Amino acid sequence: MADVNRGNRPLSPHLTIYRPQLTSMTSILTRITGNAMLIAALLIVWWFLAAATSEAYFDVVNGFVTSWFGDLIMFFSVLGLWYHTLAGIRHLIWDNGYALDIPTAEKLGWACIGGSVLLTLLTVLIV
Q1: Over 60: is that where the pLDDT of 33 sits?
Q2: What pLDDT score was predicted for residue 122?
Q3: Is 3 inside any structural domain?
Q4: Average pLDDT, stretch 82-97?
Q5: How buried is residue 121: exposed, middle or buried, by Cβ count under 10 Å (0-12/13-18/19+)?
Q6: Which one of 2, 21, 71, 93 counts the least CB within 10 Å of its CB?
Q7: What is the DSSP-derived secondary structure letter of residue 123?
Q8: What is the CATH number of the domain that holds 25?
Q9: What are 49-75's pLDDT values in tens digits?
Q10: CA-to-CA distance for 102 and 9, rounded, in angstroms?
């Protein structure tokens, strides 16, 4: 039988009271960085293919990769790689049944964010 009160119910009442947690945001960020690294990998493959094709084509691609926009893409790729690595280590810790309480999980989330920024800066400055 059809629900006669269907039009009187609110659609999503939880959206007005939901506050995103750090663990959910870091989980979403892990997925985003995983997909973003694919774009960076394709850029690197394009650079290698250009190097194998011809010198003129390599000059074009190398000009793009070493431009300010290419440097920006590579910088954020390193940031994403470090974040994704640290988040993977965090998940390994969780898989072993450790640090599952909310305060410790939030500390690990902040450690992933801060650690990825620190390691990115160290990588860019040293390399």
Answers
A1: yes
A2: 97
A3: no
A4: 95
A5: middle
A6: 2
A7: H
A8: 1.20.1300.10
A9: 999 999 999 999 999 999 999 999 999
A10: 33
